[in-house]
């Protein structure tokens, strides 16, 4: 089916806007492709270093460019639950590569930090920048020019976007992403949230809180709520970087291993040495990016991707804007209810039909581009499946069902949970911001209340504990942008604001920082740009200013005299405390050159 006319029109304007940068990008990719297998340019000394630890047969094969060599970029570490399963992947990939007549080498490792560990801590101020650092680290690994294709092992928040930027920077190489899957279901997410709020109110202690958190995050795999990590996996599948059905299979299962073996063999099959050459830079185009945004809206995905998708697209010479994202949200219905946009977790989502059912439903109404290239070698229609383990241990695929196994979790396109994706751009005299309202009750989509200004999330938490916030207000938390302090998530504000909202107060958040991939029930205008450190209007807001946040009209306004507001001097704040400790001093160059949020908050583009 051809794309819905509204989807097609938005895609067409992205294509038109991107022509100059996309053409330059493709020229670079095709120039690199034209040089053929790259090991031929290496001197004997270069090559000897590159295969020094290989077996004699592998050395012979690599010396003659007779077999494809697969580069593995891994984000393994054994502190992060989502990445711990990758410890065994290189051996599995090397074995599968040998079976397919190829060779695989670990090209390099990339850092992988966890927002869950650093939430509310100084380390969170390096989190967003780690995305671009990951892209750079992957580039170092692939710069040895030894490889005919690459597989990328990554799952969580900044890791997959960083790896995607690297894959597209090396767009002359085929790239396959191999996930590890979600952990099994633990303590229900709504119960975890309830305990957090009780702790914020002082009604339970640290021991009870830690017990609840430990039951929630209890084993290998991604966290089971639908935050950035699981949004990443959805994106890689709907954009064609995964094998069909790969996203949400639990770690340590036979099917998970079978999918990893299959992905390895497929990566070797799509190199320039074969007949199905699929370079990542040509595979991913404007239609692929639009499909990613559509998937984000249809599942109520992470607000962090209003940053990441913009940066990922730019790596391929594609100019995606917040307006595009917002306009697509108006077209795409919400088909999934996964926490915090519901009670279910991603395991329930997968059991209800998962990605295969979702893609099938979206294609049914022309809300996705089917005529895209994927690593599987077919259009997106090939992803409307459910994966199974065959009798011989290989992956088999069955057509996805027409009806959801749990309509409360995953619904049809004809009976959506809501008519739009709930992610909008806000504009007004504060600048630009984004808001996700898919989990916000309709009566809170418009908030008008006086501002209370904070320059640190801990100030707000302290004011809450002192009982100073029992009223209607908009919390303005500023100097949290990429150039100020790396744009940390402010997710630790959620319990306090949630308590106040539950007490009947009209509350909202306005910030130039990030909220969370799990932005929830409190209306939050986030990623405000221009940010406060650049003298943006948010730096001119004063305590008591009446602020109107209207997620229906798409506006964010300070209701003050326009001339008086414009003439105010922006507040200047001492940010020296953000510059040192836990490695933050090393990221000073990143803070100096970081771009604005609506351009991806990147140091690369």
TrEMBL record:
Repressor found in the keyword field: no
Annotated positions binding [4Fe-4S] cluster: 156, 223
GO molecular function terms attached to this record: 4 iron, 4 sulfur cluster binding; metal ion binding; phosphogluconate dehydratase activity
Enzyme Commission code(s) on record: 4.2.1.12
This protein's UniProt keywords: 4Fe-4S, Carbohydrate metabolism, Gluconate utilization, Iron, Iron-sulfur, Lyase, Metal-binding
Keyword Lyase: yes
Pathway: Carbohydrate metabolism; Entner-Doudoroff pathway
GO cellular component, one term: cytosol
Top enzyme category: lyase
Record-annotated Dihydroxy-acid/6-phosphogluconate dehydratase N-terminal domain positions: 68-381
Cofactor: [4Fe-4S] cluster
Record-level GO BP terms: D-gluconate metabolic process; Entner-Doudoroff pathway through 6-phosphogluconate
NCBIfam families to which the protein is assigned, alphabetical: edd (TIGR01196)
Described purpose of this protein according to its UniProt entry: Catalyzes the dehydration of 6-phospho-D-gluconate to 2-dehydro-3-deoxy-6-phospho-D-gluconate.
Protein name per its UniProtKB record: Phosphogluconate dehydratase
């Amino acid at each position: 089916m051809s794309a819905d006319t509204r989807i097609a029109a938005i895609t067409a304007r992205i294509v038109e806007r991107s022509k100059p940068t996309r053409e330059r990008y493709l020229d670079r990719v095709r120039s690199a492709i034209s040089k053929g297998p790259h090991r031929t340019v290496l001197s004997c000394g270069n090559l000897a270093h590159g295969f020094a630890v290989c077996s004699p047969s592998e050395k012979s094969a690599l010396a003659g460019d007779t077999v494809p060599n697969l580069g593995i970029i891994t984000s393994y570490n054994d502190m992060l639950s989502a990445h711990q399963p990758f410890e065994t992947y290189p051996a599995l990939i090397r074995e599968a590569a040998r079976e397919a007549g190829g060779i695989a080498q670990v090209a390099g490792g990339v850092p992988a930090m966890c927002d869950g560990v650093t939430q509310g801590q100084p380390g969170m101020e390096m989190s967003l920048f780690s995305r671009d650092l990951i892209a750079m680290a992957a580039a170092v690994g692939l710069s040895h020019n030894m490889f005919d294709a690459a597989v990328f092992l990554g799952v969580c928040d900044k890791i997959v976007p960083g790896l995607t930027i690297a894959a597209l920077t090396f767009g002359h190489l085929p790239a396959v992403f191999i996930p590890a899957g979600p952990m099994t279901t633990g303590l229900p997410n709504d119960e975890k949230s309830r305990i957090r709020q009780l702790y914020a109110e002082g009604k339970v202690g640290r021991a009870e809180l830690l017990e609840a958190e430990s039951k929630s995050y209890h084993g290998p795999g991604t966290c089971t709520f639908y935050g950035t990590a699981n949004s990443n996996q959805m994106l890689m599948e709907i954009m064609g970087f995964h094998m069909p059905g790969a996203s949400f299979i639990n770690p340590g299962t036979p099917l998970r291993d079978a999918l990893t073996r299959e992905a390895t063999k497929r990566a070797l099959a799509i190199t320039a040495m074969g007949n199905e050459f699929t370079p990542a830079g040509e595979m991913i185009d404007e239609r692929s990016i639009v499909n990613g945004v559509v998937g984000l809206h249809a599942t109520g995905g992470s607000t962090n991707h209003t940053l990441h998708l913009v940066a990922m697209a730019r790596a391929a010479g594609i100019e995606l804007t917040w307006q595009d994202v917002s306009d697509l949200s108006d077209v795409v219905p919400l088909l999934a209810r996964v926490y915090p946009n519901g009670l279910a977790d991603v395991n329930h989502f997968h059991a209800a039909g998962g990605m295969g059912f979702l893609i099938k439903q979206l294609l049914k109404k022309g809300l996705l581009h089917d005529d895209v290239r994927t690593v599987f070698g077919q259009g997106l229609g090939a992803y409307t499946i459910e994966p199974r383990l065959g009798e011989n241990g290989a992956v088999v695929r069955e057509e996805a069902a027409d009806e959801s196994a749990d309509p409360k979790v995953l619904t049809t396109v004809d009976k959506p949970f809501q008519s739009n994706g709930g992610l909008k751009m806000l504009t007004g005299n504060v600048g630009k911001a984004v808001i996700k309202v898919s989990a916000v009750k309709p009566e809170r989509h418009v908030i008008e209340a006086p501002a209370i200004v904070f320059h640190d999330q801990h100030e707000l938490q302290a004011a809450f504990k002192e009982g100073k916030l029992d009223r209607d207000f908009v919390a303005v938390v500023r100097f949290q942008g990429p150039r100020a302090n790396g744009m940390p998530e402010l997710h630790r504000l959620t319990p306090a604001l949630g308590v106040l909202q539950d007490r009947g107060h009209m509350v909202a958040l306005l910030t130039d920082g990030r909220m969370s991939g799990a932005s929830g029930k409190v209306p939050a205008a986030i990623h405000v740009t221009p940010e406060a450190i650049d003298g943006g209007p948010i730096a001119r807001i004063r305590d008591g200013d009446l602020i109107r946040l209207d997620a229906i009209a798409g506006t964010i306004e300070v209701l003050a005299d326009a001339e008086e507001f414009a003439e105010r001097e922006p507040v200047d704040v001492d940010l020296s405390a953000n510059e040192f400790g836990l490695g933050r001093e090393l990221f000073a160059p990143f803070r100096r050159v970081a771009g604005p949020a609506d351009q991806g908050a990147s140091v690369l583009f």
